[in-house]
From TrEMBL:
It comes from the Eukaryota. Signal peptide: none annotated. PANTHER family: MYB TRANSCRIPTION FACTOR-RELATED-RELATED (PTHR45675), TRANSCRIPTION FACTOR MYB24 (PTHR45675:SF44). Residues 10-62, 63-117 form the HTH myb-type domain. PROSITE patterns: HTH_MYB, MYB_LIKE. Residues 10-62, 63-113 form the Myb-like domain. It comes from Hibiscus sabdariffa (roselle). Pfam families: Myb_DNA-binding. Keywords: DNA-binding, Nucleus, Repeat, Transcription, Transcription regulation. This is Uncharacterized protein. It is found in: Nucleus. SUPFAM superfamilies: Homeodomain-like.
Length: 210
DNA sequence: AACCGGCTCAACCGCCGGTCG
DNA sequence: TCGACCGGCGGTTGAGCCGGT
């Protein structure tokens, strides 16, 4: 009874960046068994990771409906509007941006929006015109990383769905995957052998799924 | 070409509330 | 009722990338 429970099993807990093998194991396991108790899942899948780490990796990166990069002007407007309303309630804000994670929104806010907060026009953005003012400022400083152009947005011709219309697939699940893969391919075409994208992960998962 | 500083974002940390035995 | 466990959340960190000098 002197032995502390579980301590001996905590010896080997991996931290740091996830490897492709770990991603594959996690995706494969969830595809076959679904999400469950994360600590148990980590052990059952044979991952030397904490349940928290697995959950975070799945929710922020591996989940098939995660959209990555290319925050659209409308999303930016929504983020600013909801942040003005709720403050740093990132998960609450994320619920109103399908496919976006709280972590991504949080990062986006801190790196792309917060640094401009000293500018007077950005202090109050409770309506569309305020947002347009901000977007106009950002356009002049080339700070807007998005698919749709500012001109599209200003002229009202831009639609948040239009950038993804090529993915209008009956199978929403794989449509989102394709959309995600395309974005990743477009944004990181110079990745070398040490990198991989969700196409790699999911194609391997599909192969292993039978 | 090398160095440096700023930027980005994946991942971790610590805390809190809910649930269950 | 209480303690252990778990998930969720917001804040923070650090490695890698990139552009400027």
């Amino acid at each position: 009874m002197e032995k502390k429970p579980c301590k001996s099993e905590e010896v080997e807990v991996r931290k740091g960046p996830w490897t492709m093998e770990e991603d594959l194991i996690l995706v494969n396991y969830i595809a076959n068994h679904g999400e469950g108790v994360w600590n148990s899942l980590a052990k059952a899948a044979g991952l030397k990771r904490t349940g928290k780490s697995c959950r975070l990796r799945w929710l922020n990166y591996l989940r098939p409906d995660v959209r990555r990069g290319n925050i659209t002007p409308e999303e930016q407007f929504l983020i600013m509007e909801l942040h003005a309303k709720w403050g740093n309630r990132w998960s609450k804000i994320a619920k109103h941006l399908p496919g976006r994670t709280d972590n991504e929104i949080k990062n986006y806010w801190r790196t792309r929006i917060q640094k401009h907060m000293n500018k007077p026009a950005e202090i109050c953005y409770s309506n569309q015109s305020d947002c347009e003012l901000l977007l106009d400022q950002q356009a002049s400083t080339s700070q807007l990383p998005c698919n749709g152009t500012n001109a599209d947005f200003m002229e009202g011709s831009y639609s948040p769905l239009s950038s993804f219309s090529h993915c209008n697939n009956n199978d929403a699940f794989y449509g989102q995957q394709q959309q995600q893969q395309q974005m990743i391919v477009e944004s990181s075409s110079n990745h070398e052998d040490n990198y991989w994208n969700m196409e790699d992960i999911w194609s391997m998962q599909i192969l292993n799924d039978d």
